[in-house]
Structures are given as structure tokens and as C-alpha cells.
Amino acid sequence: LQRLQRGVDELTLQLDATLRLARRQFATPESVDVDAWLPPLIERLLRSRPAPVQMTLSGRAGTQPLAQRDAELVVTAGIQHLLAQGRAGTLQVRLDSEGIALVFHPGMDSVVGEAQRAVRSRQEARSDRGLAATIVGKLAAVHGWHYDDSRLDADRLRIVLWPTGIPDSSAEEVGRGGSA
């Protein structure tokens, strides 16, 4: 039943993104206090997860020009994909000058599930998790955002929603287990 609900959620997200792309109806950028907007969004998403996931938040992004509804779709898709396996643990969220770095740390109860997850082929796991990212990735690109799920198998995701043009190494730092 949980897998069915996750599928319905992902289809709803894909449909919304697809309709926005097809109709070329994109949210208009506005000044958004990211530090106030993002935590409640993530907390709401985490409450709907089948296994308990805690959030730690670090860094600040301040007020950024952001197409809020489209950004919600991108962030929601990213978190759905990152937590697609339904594992318990902690989601580390780091805000910085370019966007959001997300790192999932499975809890002890999830370690047993890791062995079961490893049995599945990588292709099977990616096909279950990668479909919405393609559509949402296109929506992100329309706004000049970058949705990088290349390290999703390592429980890491980087979303650049307010690019400054200056490369930021903090996502790599967080991804290698650095402090956040």
C-alpha cells in the first residue's frame, strides 16, 4: 500500500511538471525567504514517509529570487527520490549560496534493509527511482536550475536553485561526511 501511495505521489508530481512544461506555464520568480520556506516543506514531506526520518538543517540561504511553486516540485521530487526506499534515518539539509545539499544517513534499523536493497540490480533500482527526475529535471532546466541526482545511489543529492555562477564545494564537503 505504501509503494502504491508513493507511486501515486510521483505520478501526481510528474503530471504537474509535465503540464507546466507542455503549457509553458512556469511560476514567476519572486523574493522568497528560503530559510523560512524550505524547512516546513521538508518537514511536511518527511511526515508522510513510511519510516521515521529526522531532519538536520544547517546553513542559510536568505532571500532569493525563486519561482516558488516550481521549486517546490523540484525539491519534492528530489526528496521523494532520495528517500524512495522507505528507510528510517536522518536527512541532512545544508543551505548555501547556490542551493540545497541533501544527504541521507540511514538509521540502524535500515542497515538490515541495505543488504536486501543491494541484492536488486542497479538498473532495477534506478528505473524505480529515476522516472520523475527526468521530467522534473527539464522543469528545473527551464529556470536555469541544476538537479544533480548522479550520486543518488550514495544517498546524496544537490539542487542548485539560485545559481551565483561561482562553484560551491560545500556539497562535496557534505557528501564526503564533512560537517554541515
Would you summarize the structure shown here?
With 180 residues, this protein is an alpha+beta fold. Helices cover 49% and strands 21% of the residues. Strand 4 and strand 5 (99-106) form a beta hairpin.
Sum up the overall morphology in one term: globular
Look at the helices and sheets and give the structural class: alpha+beta
Give the ordered list of helices and strands: HEHEEHEEHHHEEH
The profile of the biggest β sheet is: 5 strands, mixed
* Radius of gyration over C-alpha positions, nearest whole angstrom: 16 Å
Strand content: 15-25%
Task: List the topology elements.
Elements: H1 2-23, E1 30-33, H2 34-47, E2 53-58, E3 63-66, H3 68-82, E4 89-95, E5 99-106, H4 108-119, H5 122-129, H6 131-142, E6 146-148, E7 156-160, H7 170-175
Parallel strand pairs: 2-4
Antiparallel strand pairs: 1-3, 4-5, 5-7, 6-7
